[in-house]
């Protein structure tokens, strides 16, 4: 009986941890974030402004109808609208982004560690997809991919590698919603080949099973030429 009790306690603890592994529910109507880098008290990552000082502008972001510049090597632009742009999103657990693509523009493989993403295509044609996490032995990561047209919606599960590619000859526009006030983004290639300091070429050579010269070339390319951070 004692063993079963301890096992039940462990399982309940794990379940509780999983349930809490997302943006916490708000404990008040709102908590407008204060941009105080020296603060030591945090609520959902930001401290709260005195409610008496809250203004309508704390819940406002203008200009999402304007396209972002795609004049970069990837031919894409992500305009984020999260708690860093709208302080009033603090503790509310949602955010938004506009994605602009030049013809053949790419939002490269990346993950959002803190949020599921739902994507709506407004203009153009996008090839999108995500890859499952590492499977059991002797199995491969599975790719789920789809061509989206205006009016189509696609969902990317939290934490899984995904991408969007404009395979058309005209510009494309999409809007994404996230289940977090601050979903975060890790662009896979940037993180692996453009980290500071660089990951040891010996590690990457072993991981990707390619020559050391290839790894060093990729690292040099990302350090010198990659000015875009989607």
TrEMBL record:
<dbReference type="InterPro" id="IPR006045">
    <property type="entry name" value="Cupin_1"/>
</dbReference>
<dbReference type="Pfam" id="PF00190">
    <property type="entry name" value="Cupin_1"/>
</dbReference>
<keyword id="KW-0052">Apoplast</keyword>
<keyword id="KW-0964">Secreted</keyword>
<feature type="binding site">
    <location>
        <position position="107"/>
    </location>
    <ligand>
        <name>oxalate</name>
    </ligand>
</feature>
<keyword id="KW-0479">Metal-binding</keyword>
<feature type="binding site">
    <location>
        <position position="162"/>
    </location>
    <ligand>
        <name>Mn(2+)</name>
    </ligand>
</feature>
<keyword id="KW-1015">Disulfide bond</keyword>
<feature type="binding site">
    <location>
        <position position="117"/>
    </location>
    <ligand>
        <name>oxalate</name>
    </ligand>
</feature>
<dbReference type="GO" id="GO:0048046">
    <property type="term" value="C:apoplast"/>
</dbReference>
<dbReference type="InterPro" id="IPR014710">
    <property type="entry name" value="RmlC-like_jellyroll"/>
</dbReference>
<feature type="binding site">
    <location>
        <position position="112"/>
    </location>
    <ligand>
        <name>oxalate</name>
    </ligand>
</feature>
<dbReference type="InterPro" id="IPR011051">
    <property type="entry name" value="RmlC_Cupin_sf"/>
</dbReference>
<feature type="disulfide bond">
    <location>
        <begin position="31"/>
        <end position="48"/>
    </location>
</feature>
<feature type="signal peptide">
    <location>
        <begin position="1"/>
        <end position="21"/>
    </location>
</feature>
<feature type="binding site">
    <location>
        <position position="110"/>
    </location>
    <ligand>
        <name>Mn(2+)</name>
    </ligand>
</feature>
<keyword id="KW-0464">Manganese</keyword>
<dbReference type="InterPro" id="IPR019780">
    <property type="entry name" value="Germin_Mn-BS"/>
</dbReference>
<dbReference type="InterPro" id="IPR001929">
    <property type="entry name" value="Germin"/>
</dbReference>
<feature type="binding site">
    <location>
        <position position="117"/>
    </location>
    <ligand>
        <name>Mn(2+)</name>
    </ligand>
</feature>
<keyword id="KW-0732">Signal</keyword>
<feature type="binding site">
    <location>
        <position position="112"/>
    </location>
    <ligand>
        <name>Mn(2+)</name>
    </ligand>
</feature>
<feature type="domain" description="Cupin type-1">
    <location>
        <begin position="62"/>
        <end position="216"/>
    </location>
</feature>
<comment type="similarity">
    <text>Belongs to the germin family.</text>
</comment>
<dbReference type="GO" id="GO:0030145">
    <property type="term" value="F:manganese ion binding"/>
</dbReference>
<protein>
    <recommendedName>
        <fullName>Germin-like protein</fullName>
    </recommendedName>
</protein>
């Amino acid at each position: 009986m004692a063993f079963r009790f301890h096992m039940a306690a462990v399982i309940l603890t794990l379940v509780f941890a999983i349930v809490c592994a997302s943006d916490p529910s708000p404990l008040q109507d709102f908590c407008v974030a204060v941009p105080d880098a020296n603060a030591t008290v945090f609520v959902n990552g930001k401290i709260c402004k005195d409610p008496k000082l809250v203004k309508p502008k704390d819940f406002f972001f203008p200009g999402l109808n304007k396209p972002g510049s795609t004049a970069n090597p990837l031919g894409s632009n992500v305009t984020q609208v999260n708690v860093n742009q709208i302080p009033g999103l603090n503790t509310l657990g949602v955010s938004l982004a506009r994605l602009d693509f030049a013809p053949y523009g790419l939002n490269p493989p990346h993950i959002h560690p803190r949020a599921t993403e739902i994507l709506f295509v407004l203009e153009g044609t996008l090839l999108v997809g995500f890859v499952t996490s590492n499977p059991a032995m002797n199995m491969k990561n599975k790719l789920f991919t789809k061509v989206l047209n205006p009016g189509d919606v696609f969902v990317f599960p939290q934490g899984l590698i995904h991408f969007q590619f404009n395979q058309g000859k005209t510009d494309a526009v999409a809007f994404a919603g996230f289940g977090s006030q601050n979903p975060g983004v890790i662009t896979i290639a940037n993180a692996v080949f453009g980290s500071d300091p660089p990951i040891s070429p010996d590690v990457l050579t072993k991981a990707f099973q390619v020559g050391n010269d290839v790894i060093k070339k990729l690292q040099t390319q990302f350090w010198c030429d990659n000015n875009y951070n989607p």
